Amino acid sequence: MGTDNKRKARKNLANQQKIFNQYRPRLQAIAYRMLGTIGDAEDMVQETFIKWLSVSVEEIQSPQAYLTTIVTRLCIDYLRSSKVRHEQYVGVWLPEPIVSHFSNEPSELVELADSLAMAFLVILERLSPVERAVFLLREVFEYDYDEISRHVGKNGANCRQIFRRAKQHIEVNRSRFDTSLSQQEQLTRKFIEACEQGDLPGLIDLLAADITLWSDGGGKVQSLLKPMQGGTKVARFLIALRRSKLIPNYDSELVRVNGQIGIIYSLKGSVQNVVTFEFIACRIRSIYFVRNPDKLRRISDSFPPILTVLRNDSLLPVESLAENCG
After folding, report:
1. Which residues have C-beta within 8 Å of that of residue 198, sequence separation ≥ 6?
2. Which of 118, 147, 173 is the last residue of a domain?
3. Nearest to 310 by CA among 247, 258, 259
4. Which of 29, 243, 299, 301 is 20–30 Å from 100 (CA)?
5. Which residues of 5-36 are buried (b: 16+ CB within 10 A; e: fewer)?
6. Cα 323 to Cα 237: distance, rounded to the nearest angstrom
């Protein structure tokens, strides 16, 4: 290849990279909401980039539409192929949390942060891959049905039906009462205080009667193997957990978790637990514990070491503790 051709090839590559980087944040946003894990989302975006490099830019009428179609279909295929892995997952599967310091907005995937909430992503998990794609593209990213039909390979009328069905499912399970960030912060601080002081009546007062506690340990650390429901039962479990030998002297810090108020519990700079909530009518309706170390590594890298006191006591099984809180 001559010098001129090499120069032209480098220029074309630079142009393709520039165009791709323009749409990368949106592609990441779509992929994360589809898959629920940052690493998998990044893999899908990278595969999209590789496919993008294999085409001629001049042949693409709309780069955004082309790239959205590629990343959406890659995510759908990945979800279908990973179904067995999810079914074999030990205990409850929760999305990988995106955590930022309390005073900062998340640096990644910030677009349309309301749809990042853990409770919303958990509901999305109940939809099929195509339902999830259609709902997100329409409701969150505001694509029209003609665009969506091209992205998912379905006709427009079919996409309308899929969206209607998905939206009905989402609305049935989604909270209808908003709680402001200041109210979330106040409730979260009260939650921390009640747990640390062993204030059972105070904790019960913060929880909705039909609260659900979800805990994801991935079979790698101790956690509940199924969701726990009921305000009194959950409150008793949390107080018993705090009093037991199961939890070392963790340091807690108020943070943003997927755009909402949350807590990280750290031990010598290593994040051990990320907690976030769903609120309804100024009560805590859902609590999400993410303890799987694979989902916390990125967070540990983002927060400075915190010195704390280690307790070397033997651990009590979480499930045994839960059985005594009914």
Report:
1. 239, 242, 243
2. 173
3. 247
4. 243
5. eeeeeeeeeeebeebbeebeebbbbbbbbbbb
6. 9
Instruction: For strands 207-216 and 283-290, give the pairing.
Output: parallel
Q: Which residue carries 């309804």 as its tokens?
A: 280
Contact yes or no for 122/33 (Cβ under 8 A):
no
**Contact partners, residue 173, CB within 8 Å, separation at least 6:** 123, 126
Same domain, 229 and 138: no
Partners of 99 in beta bridges: 257
Neighbours of 111 (CB within 10 A): 14
Q: Distances in Å between the alpha carbon of 221 and those of 67, 196, 235?
A: 38, 22, 22
Q: What residue ranges in 77-145 does DSSP mark as E strands?
A: 99-101
How crowded is residue 40: how many other Cβ atoms within 10 Å of its Cβ? 18
CA dihedral 22, 28, 30, 31 (to 10 degrees): 140
Is 260 part of a structural domain of the chain?
Answer: yes
Q: What is the pLDDT along the chain (326 residues), one digit of tens a residue?
A: 566 677 777 777 888 999 999 999 999 999 999 999 999 999 999 999 999 999 988 889 999 999 999 999 999 999 998 876 777 889 999 999 999 876 555 444 444 456 889 999 999 999 999 999 999 999 999 999 999 999 999 999 999 999 999 999 998 887 765 778 889 999 999 999 999 899 999 999 999 999 999 999 999 998 999 999 999 999 999 999 888 766 667 888 999 999 889 999 988 878 999 999 999 989 999 999 999 999 998 886 665 543 322 222 323 355 544 555 55
Does one domain contain both 219 and 268?
yes
> Which element (helix H / strand E) includes 270?
strand 270-280
Is the four-CA dihedral 87, 88, 92, 95 of positive or negative sign? negative
**Do 148 and 137 contact (CB within 8 A), yes or no?**
yes
Q: How many domains does the chain have?
A: 2
C-beta atoms surrounding 51 within 10 Å: 14
